[in-house]
Amino acid sequence: MTVKDKLKYTKDHEWLRVESDDVVVVGITEYAQSELGDIVFVEVETEGEELEAGEVFGSIEAVKTVSDMYMPVSGQVLEFNEVLTTAPETINQDAYEAGWIIKIKMSDPQELNELLTPEKYKELIGA
User: Which residues contact 123 (CB under 8 A, 6 or more apart)?
Assistant: First the structure.
């Protein structure tokens, strides 16, 4: 299982990549997509909305199950990766790059300090 060094992680198996002082890109980890199996649909209807950390921002449907996705930090959902509308399997193929899900404009960048380091995430998944 790949765990990238320059990312932050959540216990819900999401990753965050800081793009600027207050913008992060969010996706699910390679571990999460492997547990879900073949992803067939991604739904994010919260684009443009302000949400708190822990609130549901969308759902991801795989052959096996449907899972909610949670805001890792508080802020506004700026953008949804439109590629996933027609090619949700992109998450299975490239979870950390082309398979990103949303961009968030953080309302409190200090919340990043509450997320897991790559080392802590590896402990969580037993890698």
Answer: none
| Class (C level, CATH) for 8-108 | mainly beta
* Tens digit of each residue's pLDDT (9 = 90 or more) over 17-76: 999 999 999 999 999 999 999 999 999 999 999 999 999 999 999 998 999 999 999 999
Q: Where are the alpha helices (DSSP H) in the chain?
A: 30-36, 83-86, 90-93, 118-125
Where do the domains of the chain lie? 8-108
Work out the pLDDT band at 1, boundaries 50, 70, 90: confident
The DSSP output letter for 113 is G
